[in-house]
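Let's inspect one such protein example.
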Amino acid sequence: MNELQLRPRLKRLKLGGMLQTLELRLDQAHQEQLGHLEFLELMLEDEIQRRANKALARRIGRARFDEAQTLADFDFSFNPTLPAAQIRDLATCGFIERKESVLLVGPVGVGKTHLAQAIGHGACMQGRSVLFDKTARVLADLGAGHLDGTWERRLRRYLSPDLVILDDFGLRAFTERQGEDLYELVSERVRRGSIIVTSNRPPTEWYALFPNAVLAEGALDRLINAAHHVTLEGKSYRPRQRPDAKKRSDSVIKGDVAETEPVRRTSTPATTRASVTTLGRRDAKTKTN
């Protein structure tokens, strides 16, 4: 049987992916004098890997990450005070198995979104379903559901994944309707799966964002008291992403600082100038004597 005869049979069995490595494996089998079972094992391993890669690509696509970021891409040395051990522990995704949540809190630019997406990417690698979105977009989507009668269907979309990541939580105060939707979302999510929340505000400030204090207490008590709290502090990564950042860095390395930014002259304090003047006068008087 040649490849042309084999092709329709493999496709009928939904094993068409084997054709991608068939020629390579035939050459390997000939050169290494592999037995039939060894050859079959190689072909099956190729198909298993191909399907795993395809499934991973689907999960990452459905997660809708802003960027494909991993923990290996994160520079912990830039801000040495970050709780690296805690973050790496969370990246094992054991908290998802336990249906726990994570709060990533800190100022702008310290890497909250990067870390949230990196943990989500790791969850996808483990075969888990993930959904990433900005909190404002989630609330807008649920709000539209009230208008066209699809609210329950839209809510189920945020309840079904193993992990939901709400980015930029609490940038502004919530409306009455948004507060109600958040209460329903959080209340159901904490029972069914995990949430990662990133925010520039500490959790103590979230309560005031809800117009209804009772809903705020009901939603946030469930979320905050059943979550890992990760506080990120340090300088912002954003200046390093400026288009001229690498150019400036290269200039400094080459010693061309004068061409990239003016030399700063350190002014001499008045008290120091007075001391220098007095010492000069004393030296002159000593020489005259």
Notes: Confidence is low (pLDDT under 50) at residues 251-289. Residues 36-63 form the longest helix (28 residues). The chain is about 55% helix and 10% strand.
